[in-house]
Specification:
By secondary structure, this protein is α/β, with parallel strands linked by helices. Helices cover 40% and strands 30% of the residues. The protein folds into 2 domains: 302 residues, Nucleotidyltransferase, domain 5 (2-Layer Sandwich), CATH 3.30.420.380; 113 residues, General secretion pathway protein M, EpsM (Gyrase A, domain 2, 2-Layer Sandwich), CATH 3.30.1360. The chain has a 5-stranded mixed beta sheet with strand order 3-2-1-4-8. It has a 5-stranded mixed beta sheet with strand order 11-10-9-12-13, covered by helices on one side. The chain is rod-shaped. The two termini are 94 Å apart.
């Protein structure tokens, strides 16, 4: 169960394989397509492919593989290609694909092919100079029918050297036109996966016709373009490959077939000439659909190790970041709580200060009310309270009012006499200055001020400098 879940997870994308170059090198030209994968990484086969860019570049065959690789590298750089992963196919005259029937009693088909190379491929080429791959088609009473693709080892080595010089890591190395099927399978499932379809591939050297059924190649026919290919000849061969198909539709994988009946194959919205390159890029993402593969097992394992290291590094980095966040977040939370606590303490201190001032003011008002001698009948309680609050507010901390009397003439209150004590003459001056700023008081005058004489040595240290004073205040009409 767990193994099945891990097989569905797109570990390649998690390790950094987000885009792949499909590079179709045909003669002196290279057709390049960069595909990216969209969708959830939890299901590697349910996502969709999007073409990021496509371009061509000239790779003259007269140059060495290293020189061609550097030209490809420059073309990728000029087109802003960020990825270093690619898939390609050997597209030379040395690629041969044949159909063969392997007897049922053969246990190792590859060994059988190696022993019968001279009969299967009657060419003056040594067996040691060839590499081949085998793709089963169907098994019948006579044996296993298979497609066998041969390629010169020197062509494979030159292709590997070219991509090494280009600084690209190969994920897949195919041969021939089978890679068209990959792009068709993911871009047009209705025709490739459920029915039979003919794919026509035209190159400068040959015309190839593949017959596919449910995502697999079931027939192949190829001929050189040394003479004109007629419509009737192509369609006759198509019917020979697939007798069950009544429809004469062909899908073109490279160029417009002109007079041939068919439709243009444009995977992912690309031009038809990029069809094979698109199929190669798909093979780079989905190793399970590789039908022809000439990349050595050693290189494949090296690539897996590279992705595994990248995935491990990313996992360690993510875990490190999460651990750092788990350590930093409590610290930041404590700083925030500490800052908020300091702000609340400051607000509490300010409110305590205001509360203390209010308490002092209320105590002064209460004292003034108690020291008030006589209450004028004409004065309302609210006006009198307002006047006492005003005077209490204006009295400095080091001044104390001991007695207040109010004189009325007629129905209006006109004079107020205040008797008090201060710790110094400066305190009396502060009181007079404050009283003159009040809108309720009209005139302020000092009727008596004297410094208290202290004869007792015990009281001299505490009462020395005390000043007694009498003040007369003229009140504005309406203040009381």
């Amino acid at each position: 169960m767990i193994q099945t879940v891990f097989k569905r997870i797109d570990l390649e994308r998690l390790s950094g394989l987000t885009s792949v170059l499909g590079i179709d090198i045909d003669g002196d030209d290279a057709f390049v397509v960069e595909l990216t994968r969209r969708g959830s990484v939890l299901s590697r086969y349910s996502g969709s492919f999007v073409s990021l860019r496509s371009f061509t570049c000239a790779l003259p065959r007269t140059k060495t593989p290293g020189e061609r690789g550097r030209l490809l590298k420059e073309a990728c750089a000029s087109n802003g290609v960020p990825t270093r992963f690619a898939a390609t196919s050997v597209r030379t005259a040395g690629v041969k694909t044949i159909q063969a029937t392997i007897p049922l009693e053969v246990e190792e088909p590859r060994e059988w092919v190696s022993e019968h190379v001279e009969k299967l491929l009657p060419l003056p080429v040594a067996h040691s100079e060839l590499a081949f791959t085998l793709q089963p088609i169907e098994s019948g009473p006579s044996g296993l029918r298979a497609l066998i693709t041969f390629v010169r080892k020197s062509d494979v080595e030159e292709t590997l050297a070219l991509f090494e010089a280009a600084g690209l890591e190969l994920l897949s190395l195919g041969a021939g036109e089978f890679d068209l099927l990959s792009a068709l399978l993911v871009s047009d499932k209705s025709s490739a996966a459920k029915s039979r379809v003919h794919i026509a591939q035209v190159s400068p050297c040959s015309f190839t016709l593949l017959s596919a059924s449910k995502g697999r190649c079931v027939g192949l026919w190829s001929r050189p373009l040394s003479s004109t290919l007629t419509r009737d000849e192509a369609m006759e061969k198509a019917h020979e490959l697939d007798k069950e198909r009544a429809d004469d539709t062909l899908i073109s994988g490279r160029v417009d077939l002109g007079g041939l009946p068919g439709k243009m194959f444009q995977p992912f919205g690309l031009e038809s000439r990029f069809a094979l390159a698109a199929g190669l890029a798909v093979r780079g993402f989905l190793p399970g659909i590789k039908s022809v593969e000439f990349l050595s097992q050693e290189r494949a394992e090296k690539h897996k190790s590279t992705l595994a290291r990248s995935l491990l590094n990313r996992t360690v980095l993510v875990c490190g970041v999460l651990t750092l966040l788990l350590l930093v977040l409590p610290f930041l939370a404590s700083l925030y709580v500490e800052e908020r606590t300091s702000e609340l303490d400051e607000e509490l201190a300010r409110s305590g200060e205001s509360s203390a001032q209010l308490t002092t003011l209320e105590r002064r008002v209460s004292y003034l009310k108690a020291s008030l001698g006589g209450s004028p009948k004409s004065a309302s309680r609210s006006d009198l309270a307002e006047l006492l609050h005003e005077i209490a507010r204006l009295v400095p901390d080091h001044v104390e009012l001991q007695r207040i009397t109010i004189e009325t003439k007629g129905s209006a209150t006109e004079l107020m006499h205040c008797m008090g004590r201060s710790s110094s003459r400066e305190g009396v001056e502060d009181l007079l200055r404050n009283l003159r700023t009040s809108p309720l008081i009209k005139d302020v005058s000092v009727t008596n001020i004297a410094q208290k004489e202290v004869t007792s040595p015990e009281r001299r240290s505490t009462e020395a400098g005390i000043v007694d004073f009498d003040i007369e205040l003229g009140l504005n009409p309406g203040s009381v």
